[in-house]
Amino acid sequence: METDVKSILSECGFSFKKQLGQNFITDKNLLSSIVALSGAEEGDTVVEIGCGAGTLTRALAQKVKRVISFEVDKTLAPVLQRTLAGLENVEVVFKDFLKVDMPEFESGLKDYVVVANLPYYVTTPLIMKLIESSEKCKGLCVMVQEEVADRLCAKAGTADYGAITAMVALRAECAVVKRVPRTLFTPRPNVDSAVVKFTFGKGIEVADKALYKKVVHAAFGSRRKTLENNLVNSFGFSRQKAQEILTECRIDLKARGETLTPKQFAELAKIISEYK
Length: 276
Ligand code: SAM
Description:
Helices cover 41% and strands 18% of the residues. The protein has 12 helices and 9 strands. It has helices at residues 2-11, 28-38, 55-61, 77-83, 102-106, 120-133, 146-152, 163-168, 209-221, 227-235, 239-248, 262-275, and strands at 24-25, 45-49, 66-70, 90-93, 112-117, 137-145, 172-180, 185-186, 193-200. Strand 3, helix 4 (77-83) and strand 4 form a beta-alpha-beta unit. Helix 9 crosses helix 10. It is elongated, with a radius of gyration of 21 Å. Bound molecules: S-adenosylmethionine. S-adenosylmethionine binds next to strand 1 and helix 3.
């Protein structure tokens, strides 16, 4: 497989675009391992984002019922015609997934699992799109830059913990399930990667998601400031009101936002909604 894909890319005159994060997987064992870790089963529909040369697409299609694969780079069409030849359960959509209208896309599907080897620049917007706008996504397994993986799965109070971690907690639990060295990609990137698996449906209870998001962004707005200061600045509360809210949540008045767990953010959002 490795030599085949590399020679197909070269025969098609394909040139890798760094700005699209085009580091492809050519290692057969890694491909099988991602398919297994994704948890996608025989009867599933898998949505892949960024099929590249189609190596992961092919491995997925050999296991599941249907693969819908999005790719923004149309110059990959002749490559994919060859690497996906003979597979009748794959549909390649040449479109930027970030621009896909989710209700329209999901209207024709029962449910689906997302599997992707994501370029760095789309990781956060793409995960946020699925967390906030998908209704039928039942699982997500993504390969991302290792430091992003650690951030996504970070615990409250650690340096890696950030707004994205707290936002993910709304819908899913996530864990790093595999570390992947840079040597397994073509061309070789400057960083190592990791596979993160999200289990949907294990999120926290939040009545007002927009308010939760506002609280989280306020808390991480200025990491060095106390949560009290960030609440005053983002919500326009008086210092006294911010202190009353924090006291009601049993949060230390000197606490910084990064020390709060997603459940505490949810409680804070609830109390703020009652004060408004
Ligand atoms: N899945 C392939 C693999 O693992 O070898 C390719 C992975 S490569 C890291 C990411 C791919 O995503 C590239 O082919 C790139 O062109 C594509 N891509 C980047 N941004 C995209 C977007 N917004 N929507 C769809 N595809 C995108």
